[in-house]
Amino acid sequence: MRRFFSFFQLMIRHQKKWFAQWHAWAGIFAGSILIVVSLTGTLLVFEEELDVWLYPELFEFEKSGEVMPLNQVFHQIRAEHPRMHFESIFQFPKRNGCYMSFYEDNDEFRQAVINPYTAEITGTRVYGDSVMGFIRNLHRTLLVPKVGKYIVGIASLFMVILMITGLRLWIPKHWGLIKERLTIKKGASFKRQNYDLHNSLGFYFSPFITLISITGVAITFSPFVVLALFLVNFQSPQSIGDILGKQSTYVADNNSLGIDHILTIAATDMPEAEIRGFSIPRDSVGVYNVNFTEDGYAVTGDNSFAMYDQYTGERLLNTDKDFANSSKLVLNWLTPIHYGTFGGMTTRIIALLASIAAPILFITGFIIWWGRWKKRHQKSSTEDHLEQPKSDLNGGSNKKQKRPVIPQRKETVTNEQ
Amino acid sequence: MSNNIDQPPITLSGYFFRGFKYAAYFMVIAGFMGLIYGAFGGIWLSPAFVAIAYLGIFVMINFVISIPLIALNLPFALFRKGSKRITRYFIYSLSFAIVFLAFFALLKFTGIEVF
Questions:
Q1: Contact at CB, A225 and B47, closer than 8 angstroms
Q2: What value of ipTM does the predicted structure carry?
Q3: B 54-83 residues with CB < 8 A to A
Q4: A43, A198, A270, A328: which could form a disulfide with B115 (CB 3.0–4.6 Å)?
């Protein structure tokens, strides 16, 4: 263990300041993981568009007539495919406005893509088996079951550390040197240009990479984030299960209200809401979930939802009204900030560029570190060589030899203040 | 060569106030980062608050982690054998937590709808 640490100590020995050492440590530990995560993240910014492009047979529809209402499509597919046991249906505007319904088959969670004009199922699939599903799994878990997502989460935390310490390292000793930190010197050596590229690119993209990384950590460790949200809202902590585990009050010999009835209640309840999907109760105490967007509330996130008792139609939860302001951080802002979707195409392109910049920073950072480490390694080898007894150099004589004396420089203390 | 030979060592309260200063820097920089990201999408204020809030959440989690550490260190500290690093870490965590808790209190009690 000590050898292991001394090896890593050797790797960062050239750095004198603690934040520079942290920067080197974080880069060494998380660099390779973050290259994979960043590059897959680049593709995931346009996940839905790429999915449509890769599978045109699923998503290309002839736009004939009006788009059918969600509940009508749901009834039709359930009637036509009784074996599929559909439990939910959602609208996907970025996937050519298709509807998708989900069901379980042989312990596999499958999705059925539905033409919104005809209610015809164009295909079914396990999303993880599709190209974008594979990329998403690689991004989130590195294809390592169970612990993979925590490895990615911790690597993202290292990325935040890299950005904070990197910004501290970026600050020039004299503000006169600021131009050097913001530009790449033309005609300079490769080493210098690489250093300039690392500094300038890191500075310009630091806001975006930091925010994308910190939301990435929050996505991985969302149960802890939710608990902390209760803490900062001055409320007693509850688990996600307690919040979302609402149940209907079972009434014997009473039929469950149909989804049409629930949607009518939801429309009265939230007149300005646009319903984007719903799921039906799984058992006798399950609830109806209705997902919606409402002007003035969830402008960015599309993650607002309400829960209704299946027997009485009573609203059990409305995230827009019942959740504290800070709790909406998770629902409305977490993934939009992470994928850059909150501000339309511009912020998505920013997120894409930031995901490309991150691997460039690792490569340029590695080149800087490698050069310094090699230099330091050579220097220490020379010192060791000088300190070695002559007997060893001359073929192993056992006679005691005087070691060469390296003159010690006297430290002079000057008070600069 | 600079040195602090004539300066007295930093006291615990010194670290505490230094923590306030650093927390304020972090808050301002996080807000500025959110502001820049949001500006590209035409939304100015919300992303700035979101950035501060997310940083604040992790500051609070960090503070919770620092509590058992200082609790373990306390018996040793009574006999002057405690780790100064742990004490310093706790003091910084506490001052960061106070600053960010003030931010969350401001959001809650003023009822500002920014998210």
A1: no
A2: 0.88
A3: 54-58, 60-61, 64
A4: A328
Q: How far apart are CA B36 and CA B32, in angstroms?
A: 6
Distance CA A151, CA A154 (A): 5
Give Cα A215 to chain centroid, integer Å: 6
Cα distance between the two ends of chain A: 43
Q: Does residue B100 contact residue B27 with C-beta atoms inside 8 Å?
A: yes
The whole-number average pLDDT for the span A365-372 is 90
CB contact under 8 A, B104 and A232: yes
pLDDT at B65: 93
Mean pLDDT of chain B: 87
The lowest-confidence range among A161-175, A247-261, A393-407 is A393-407
Tell me, yes or no, if A337 comes closer than 8 A to chain B by beta carbon. yes
Alpha helices in A388-415 (DSSP H): 390-393
Distance of CA B13 to the CA centre of its chain: 15
Question: In A48-70, which positions are buried (b, 16+ CB within 10 angstroms) versus exposed (e)?
Answer: beebbeebeebbebeeeeeebeb
Write the DSSP symbol of residue A174: S
Angle at A303 between CA A297 and CA A308, to 5 degrees: 90
Write out pLDDT tens, residues B14-42: 888 999 999 999 999 999 999 999 999 88
CA distance B41 to B38: 5
Residues of A in contact with B89 (CB under 8 A): none
User: If you measure CA to CA, which chain B residue comes closest to A348?
Assistant: B41
Contact A151, A157 (CB under 8 A): no
Provide, as residue numbers in chain B, all residues whose Cβ is less than 8 Å from the Cβ of A212. Answer: none
